[in-house]
Design goal:
Oligomer: single chain
Helix content: 55-70%
Strand content: under 5%
Structural class: mainly alpha
Number of helices: 16
Distance between the termini: 31 Å
Number of strands: 0
Shape: elongated
Amino acid sequence: MPADIIHDDPFSDYIERGLAFEQSYGSGGGDALKAKEAIAWRLHEQGSAAGGMLLGDSLISGRVSFLRKDIQVVSFARELVVRSFQALNAIADKTHWDWYYLGLAHESGRGTTVDYSQAVECYRRSKELGNPYAEFEEIWFEYLARSNILEAILRFRSCEGRLKHFAEATARALSLLALGPVREMGSYQHAWRIFELSRLLHVFLYHDKGQRQLHIAIEAEWRAEVPQLEVLGTASSALVLFLIAKRSRCNPTSQKALHWLRLAARPDSQEFFAIVKGQLNDEDELRLLSEVCAENQWGDSELARFVASEIDLL
């Protein structure tokens, strides 16, 4: 179990287990998910309104229970979040967890309608009462409610608490979006921008709704750029198209990623070499570059030596 799990606070325990699970790419599998769910059931059964909201939201999001096979998961959870929302509203002296899960109800429409402004207010109150996770949520929903990207960047950069690392990664991603596309379309600088954006999106940014907003904005930018990039016909533009084809959820280019990688390959380009070193994790890509190096007699190049060493490790 991670050292930073807080044993005397089941709500923190639940969140920390989720963070550990995501950051370890699902280490622990079903047992880890069952342990998380067990915490949520225990909180609910103890009569906690916040715990009921936590459990209900978890079941609705996952649409499955690992511990209770005797319930209709979604219908049970929908009834539970309605009751939990009413119970949370009725509490006169709310704790920071009550405010936190009331914020979750407003952000996701659990037992009520979606209202980002109300979510912001709830998370703000939770933060003021000492919740170490609430500031991150407050900033996200302020951004989603107001769409002020510069303010969000500044606030994420100064965010404290347990999610400081994710706030910093989010600020970097938003900063790249705020800067807008590069001036020289299809350049190696353009490729670096795509590389950094895709890298950040594959770092766990913790927040599903916020990350989805980033994906939407980035995918829209990539789709708009593809027609001009495909006309350019340069090695650097092919590298940009390779990165887009590889990292997009739905490849918006006219060819598969390997096609663009073949056109992008250059044995004497430090820019190409530096970027592909951080991107090549696929055997087919390595084999293709090995073929390209052989076809063009680039066997003495740094690229050929790197590819050969990586293939040896397969």
